[in-house]
Structure formats: C-alpha cells, structure tokens
Amino acid sequence: MAADTSDDRRQQRLRELRQAQLALRKRLVLMVLTLVVLIGFLFAIPKLARPRRVAAPPPEPTQAEVALPPLDLQVLAEVRDSTPEERVVLEPEPFAYLLRMSLALLPDHLRMLDEPALPFDAIEHEAAELRGRPFRLRGELLEQRTMTRLPGAPTEHWYRLRDDGGRDFFHVSMRPLAQEFQEPYFRADGYFFKVYTGSVESGGERVTAPLLVGRELVPSYRRVEPVHEPDFTLLADVRDAQFGDPTELDQAGLWHLLNVAVALRSDPQRLARAFEGAPELNRTLLETQMLESPALFRGRPMLLPGSVVGDSVRYEVGLENPLRLDAITHAYWGNLSLGKQPVHLIGPGRFPMAAQPGESGQRRFYGWFLQLESAIDKEGNARLYPVYVVADARQIPLESPAFLHTAVIVFFGVAALLALFMIVLVVRDKRRSATFEVERTQRRHKRDAAQPRT
Questions:
Q1: How big is the chain by its Cα radius of gyration, in Å?
Q2: What angle do CA 316, 350, 137 make, to 5 degrees?
Q3: Smaller CB count within 10 Å for the chain: N or C?
Q4: Hey, what's the torsion of the CAs at 190, 193, 198, 203, to 10 degrees?
Q5: 118: exposed, middle or buried (C-beta count within 10 Å: 0-12, 13-18, 19+)?
Q6: What is the dihedral of CA 131, 134, 138, 144, to 10 degrees?
C-alpha cells in the first residue's frame, strides 16, 4: 500500500514537471513573438512618420514628333527670288498650291516645333533652302487687302506687318481677320514662299520682304517688359466671384501676376525679399478675413505649406499671351489645417506643382492672392476657391515628429522589462526543475535502501 502511494506521488510529480516544461516553452514562444512585433514596430515608426515620397514618373519623350502636312517641294522648285525682276513675280501654280496646303498648317504644329522664327538676316542668301518651311512671326498690322484673282478662285487676304524688330513681312491667307481684336497686333503662322517685292494696298508703298503663306492671322499681344512687384492700382479692378457665380479669372490681373512670378523666379534674391515676413495661409486667416474681405489681400505675398490634391495638375497650352509662355499650370492645393477647402494654384509655364521624384509630397509654395472663384465641389456644394499665382515651390524638410523619440524610449523600456521577466521565469523554472530532480534522486535512494537485498 505504501509502495502504491509512493508511485502515485512520483507520477504526479512527473506530470507537474512536464506541465511546467510545456508552460515554459509556451512562454518562451510568446515572448519571442512579442519581441519580433516590437522590433518590427521600432523599424516601422520612422517610415510611418516620414511623408510619402513621390515615385519617378515614366521618362518623357526627348523630342515630340510633329506630323507636318506633306508638301511636294518639287512644285515649289520653280519659284525664283534671287534677282529684283524675279521678286516682283508671283508664280501662280506654286502659290496656289501652297495657299491650299497652308489650311492644314495648325497652331499646334508651330508650338510643338518651339515656334521657329524666320531668320531675316539670312533670308537673302538662304531663300531656296528655307522655302516651304513653317515659321511663326508676330507683328503690327500695317496694310491689308482682299482680292480674288479669277472668277471662282479662292479669296486671298493680303497683309503687311512689322515685327518688334522693325522688319516688314507679308502674309497671305484664305481666311479673313477675326471680327474682334484689341489692337492691330497679330500672330502670323505660315510657310515661307519667297522674297517678294510689292505693295498690299493699291498705290501703297512697294517694299521687299519675306512672304509667308498661312492659315490665318490670330490676334496677339505685344511682349511686355518684366515687372518685379505687383501693381496694386491694376489689381484694384479685379472682382471676386460670389457663391454660384461662374465668374471667370480676371485676365489682366492673372497675366500681370504671372509676369511678376516669371521675373522673380529668375531672381532668387528678389524673390526672397518679396516673401520675407509673408504669413502662412491657415484656416483662421482664410475663413475670418480673406473670404469676407478678399480685396484687402489681393496681390499680397503668402506662403502655402501643403501638397497638391491628387492628380489635379493640368496644363493650359496654346494661349496667345504677352509673356510668350508656352503653357500655364493649374493645380489644387490643400493641407490638413484647411480641412476640405482647396486652393487653386496657377504657375507660369510647366510649373512643378507636384513633388519631384525622390521628394516628399509636402511643399511650400510662394504666391500672391489673385481673387476668389466660384465652383461646385465633388459633393455638389458651391464653394469659393482662393486663387493664387505662384512663383516658386520648395520641399519642406523632413523632420521626425515629437512622438518618435518617445516611442523609441517606450519600446526599449518595454523590451528591457520583457527581457527581465523572461530571465526571472527561466531562473525560477530551472530552480524548480533542479529541486524536483534532487527530490526524485533522494526518493530513488530511499526506495533502493528499503528494498531487501537478495
């Protein structure tokens, strides 16, 4: 009976030892998993705190392929203009052919070719090589005449213009002038035909000048001189939109501020002085002052820290303008402090509104307030959007948030406590195992001593 009791106790102790070892293994596995999670959290904190960087866009073509209307240069080969006698002659068949083909020469062709200018200085000696090539000129309209050579023939509109360098040129098209234009200054796209001697108006002055054959004359603007600060007398005439009022952007104010932006963008020192002490746009300033009294902020420099909203960047190209910009850039900007209130940004040229490859999405824009515009948001609500013309955008330096250092300290504290706890558990379990082994050895010795020797 005593032997049975001793065996039962021994079996009970063995079960307890197995359970203790199993519990120890479970605790070790749990502690290792906890450490792995904490280490992963440690490495994830800086990545979560760092603003998202912008991936590099796919490379753009190095040169646009422009599909010009196909010209049969053999037709133009009979044109002559090397002598005074040849210059007074207008070869009928080549002229009629080029006049018809000029209808296919579109403004985008010249824009994509970077607006090739006619080389006036070389025209005398290189007329044959330049014949049939497209060019873009601008100038003041001096004379005009409409004529029809034969019954049933197309109507020809002849013009004599003078460019900003004081050089005259002729332009012929099959389309009349636009009905409205602010001043007699036009853009003339066309193919070079020959050096021609003649007059436009009957009995007018006979001049020798290049003759372009093109689609039409387009109203243009004289190139303006750069300005380095806003003209508040000009901006005083800008009017703001009201809720639901689709007022368009004030063109005079827009191009004036774009002129300032272009001038200061090329002069970093003046740009820095212009925005020295400029306030940052925030929700309080916007809602309590600007939306109530926008005229007081017109033309004022302001800093706009934030990021461009989604894929809102778009380019407006082909605009005839006094700055000779190939495009202007539009985007919608915002930051967390403004909530859902977007801001319309306009930049000169193909302005880098979005973050550049390798930069964070957060940028600080430098701009001037133009006006309020009315628009309907995605939820169907009428909103007033502030419009800013921007001159520069710079990446906001990445700074670790304040909670990052605290999180690292907490991590190491938790890891130290966890390691200490694991050590205590291991030491305790080892002691219990050693005590059990001693007791089991003593019991074995007692049992062996109690058994009778044979």
A1: 41
A2: 70
A3: C
A4: -40
A5: buried
A6: 60
For 248-252, the CB contacts below 8 A with 24+ separation are 249/370, 249/371, 249/373, 249/387, 250/370, 250/371
Query: Between helices 2-49 and 402-450, what is the axis angle to 10°?
Result: 170
Q: What is the dihedral of CA 47, 48, 52, 53, to 10 degrees?
A: -10
* Of 88, 205, 189, 56, nearest in space to 133 by CA: 189
Q: Which token pair is 354?
A: 């979005």
> pLDDT > 70: what percent of the chain?
71
Report the alpha-carbon distance of residue 44 to residue 53 in Å, rounded: 16
How far CA 355 is from CA of 5, 115, 312, 324, in Å, comes to 81, 29, 13, 26
Measured CA to CA, the distance from residue 9 to residue 443 in angstroms comes to 11
Nearest-angstrom CA–CA distance, 102 and 191 = 7
| Span 233-281, pLDDT tens digits | 999 999 988 876 767 899 999 999 999 999 999 999 999 999 999 999 8
Averaged pLDDT for residues 210-218:
96
Residue 46 has pLDDT above 70, yes or no: no
Long-range contacts of 172-175, Cβ-Cβ distance < 8 Å, separation of 24 or more: 172/99, 172/211, 172/212, 172/213, 172/214, 173/99, 173/102, 173/213, 173/214, 173/215, 173/216, 173/217, 174/99, 174/102, 174/103, 174/215, 175/215, 175/216
**Pairing between β-strand 343-348 and β-strand 382-395 as defined by DSSP bridges:** parallel
Token pair listed for 132? 């049939």
Q: Compute the distance between CA of residue 198 and CA of residue 230 in angstroms, rounded to an integer.
A: 46
Chain length of the chain: 454
